[in-house]
Amino acid sequence: MFKRCRCFVVLVALGLGSQSFAQVELANLREDVRGLSQRLGELALKVEQLERENRELKSSQGAVSKSYATVSDLNDAVADLNRVIRSSVAASRSETLAQVAVQMEKLGKQTNAALDSLAKSQATRPAVTTNFSDDFPKEGVSYTVQKGDTLAVIAKKTGAKQQDIINANKLADPSKINLGQTLFIPVSGSK
């Protein structure tokens, strides 16, 4: 169940699942409309036939009671049509749900395989080794990272060298400084 939910979230995020599902639903609805149109044509023929028979009976026998039987026949035909429509819609719905379940299961497996592959590739990456120099001024000030700050901006504001800030704070990735982070800024003057 969890895999299906995760798969559905991925589908929706990628915008793929709803389009495929809508296409299947549209195809099913078209088929239902075609079936209903055919059944409506059959009923129209039956109504014409019943009206013809009714006219013939009236002219030959003058029996009014037979027209009520024709209305009854029409009611039966409409009831039959309603049963056919309900069963067709139910069958279409269950078929669509079964197809969606199969597609979601396949997509879930593909997604899990992709995630496993990604996890394996991340696990096989070598660790980044960074060597920091101790060749920076040991005196300095604390600086709290502000919104919009980069290492270059901080160096310019404080008059320090970027490499000295990197070495002093042992920043493995200088592009990843965080808002509110406190950095030691070496005072450049004497080393």
Q: What's the number of domains? A: 2
**Largest sheet entry:** 2 strands, antiparallel
| Helicity, as a percent range | 55-70%
Mean pLDDT: 81
Give me the number of helical elements: 5
Q: What are the secondary-structure elements, in order, as H or E?
A: HHHEHHE
Give me the secondary-structure category: mainly alpha
Strand content range? 5-15%
Distance between the termini: 62 Å
User: Total number of β-strand segments?
Assistant: 2
Give the uncertain stretches in residue-range form.
1-14, 63-67
Read across the widest sheet, the strand sequence of neighbours is: 1-2
Radius of gyration: 38 Å
Spatial shape: rod-shaped
Structure in words:
With 191 residues, the protein is mostly helical. The chain has two domains: 2-123; 140-186, Membrane-bound Lytic Murein Transglycosylase D, Chain A, CATH 3.10.350. It is built from five helices and two strands, in the order αααβααβ. The chain has helices at 2-14, 17-60, 65-123, 151-158, 162-169, and strands at 140-144, 182-186. It has a two-stranded antiparallel sheet with strand order 1-2. The protein starts with a helix and ends in a 5-residue tail after the last strand. Residues 1-14 and 63-67 have low confidence and may be disordered.
